[in-house]
Specification:
This protein is α+β, with helices and mostly antiparallel strands. It has four helices and four strands; from the N terminus they run H-H-E-E-H-E-H-E. The chain has two domains: 45 residues; 70 residues, no CATH class.
């Protein structure tokens, strides 16, 4: 017993496959487009609800710190930085109000990388205790 393949069935299955592929492609393109519109609308509403930050402090970034002494046990601690042209501080808490005002990408980096590579200072709100790493008079005691 042999089975013959009829070319009509092959063409029909190919047409069904082509139609379903086009349908899936159209659905995925539509889904991507609606999420982009929601993101644009979300960013417009986010800008209006962000609290006003002192514009004089945010106009220019401070130069990178000249001196820092990070204890070895804190060197690998993770901190957050806002990848913004005006931001010049790192944050130890993700829900810091200054970090929530970030309109660009928020990065999670090590403390030593935030200071050396990104040239960041400590945030006065969430990381006041980190101010000692920039104090030249501070003596770090080893245990």
């Amino acid at each position: 017993m042999t089975i013959r393949f009829n070319p009509i069935y092959i063409r029909m299955s190919f047409l069904k496959l082509l139609k379903s592929s086009i349908f899936i492609l159209a659905l995925s393109a539509n889904a991507c487009q609606s999420s982009e519109q929601e993101q644009t609308q979300g960013s417009v509403t986010d800008q209006s609800t962000v609290p006003a930050v002192d514009s004089a402090a945010q106009t220019e970034r401070r130069p990178a710190p000249d001196f820092h002494r990070i204890p070895t046990e804190n060197a690998q601690d993770r901190v957050y930085v806002c990848d913004d042209a005006h931001a010049d501080v790192f944050h130890t808490e993700y829900n810091c109000e200054l970090l929530n005002g970030c309109q660009t990408v928020k990065k999670n980096v090590t403390l030593i990388r935030a200071v050396e590579d990104y040239g960041r200072y400590n945030c006065d709100i969430c990381s006041k205790d980190m101010a000692i790493i920039f104090d030249e008079k501070q003596v770090i005691q080893r245990r």
